[in-house]
Amino acid sequence: MGVVTAPVPDRTPKQDRSRATRRRLLEAAVACLAEHGWAGSTVAVVAERAGVSRGAAQHHFPTREDLFTAAVEYVAEERSAALRGLFADGPAARPAVVAALVDLYTGTLFRAALQLWVAASNEEQLRPRVTELEARVGRETHRIAAELLGADESVPGVRETVQGLLDMARGLGLANVLTDDAARRARVVAQWSALVDLALVPATRP
User: Fold this and answer.
1) Cβ(199)–Cβ(158) below 8 Å
2) Dihedrals phi, psi of 28, to nearest 5 degrees
3) Hey, what's the torsion of the CAs at 81, 194, 179, 110, to 10 degrees?
4) CA dist., res. 167 & res. 69, Å (int)
5) With contact defined as beta carbons under 8 Å apart, do 200 and 150 qualify?
6) Collapsing DSSP states into helix, strand and coil, what is residue 179?
7) Smallest Cα–Cα separation from 161: which of 98, 113, 96?
8) Residue 204 carries which DSSP code?
9) 3-class state of residue 62 by DSSP
């Protein structure tokens, strides 16, 4: 008769398991939103993709709106941290910073956020939450961009230059949703890098 081995108890703290489940749900929600849009992204679909029960998903996020706004915010924070990590020593070569900022708007996060914006334009319950989220994420992205570019926003026009760069990057991200026009995007980014560098050079006093 063989020896029966007792199951090894799960020693992972309950709080750690809960955080891991929440993270899986958030990442699955962003992926679903980017791939299937708002109409095709339900709590049940996300839960299945994350490998958790629907009940567990609703324990963390009671409503669909809770889940998807939290998901976009979570990934935005992750991308912001990654962007800071690329330039941990502070201001860097501006072309590299401009290219990194544009990359923020050409990936899964932007596609997911775009789907959320479109849904918010038609969903009264979702609109105020997405509007507030976009404003918060936008402010943080602007702060990071100004910091990495070494931009002195007390100088007239500099704040607008930084915001114009981010608006341009968002436009390139929107164009990328339909077609991958990497060659044209590279030329635009190179031109904007030169313009930003010129605009942020401190004026020489006579």
Assistant:
1) yes
2) -65, -35
3) 20
4) 22
5) yes
6) coil
7) 98
8) P
9) coil
How many Cβ atoms are within 10 Å of 139's Cβ, its own excluded? 10
Distance CA 30, CA 130 (A): 14
CA–CA distance, 149 with 109 (Å, rounded to integer): 23
pTM (predicted TM-score): 0.76
Q: Side-chain half-sphere of 159: how many Cα atoms within 13 Å?
A: 6
Q: Is residue 46 within 8 Å of residue 35, measured between CB atoms?
A: no
Contacts of 123 (CB under 8 A, 6+ apart): 38
Task: Please state, in angstroms and rounded to a whole number, the distance separating the CA atoms of residues 58 and 45.
Answer: 12
Query: What letter would DSSP give residue 51?
Result: T
> Do the beta carbons of residue 50 and residue 8 sit within 8 Å?
no
Q: Give me the tens of pLDDT residue by residue for the chain, a chain 206 residues long.
A: 455 555 555 555 777 888 899 999 999 998 888 888 888 889 999 999 999 999 999 999 999 989 988 888 887 888 788 888 878 776 678 888 898 888 888 877 788 888 888 888 888 888 888 888 888 888 988 999 998 898 999 999 999 999 999 999 888 888 887 777 778 888 888 998 898 888 887 644 44
DSSP 206: -
Classified as helix, coil or strand, 74 is helix
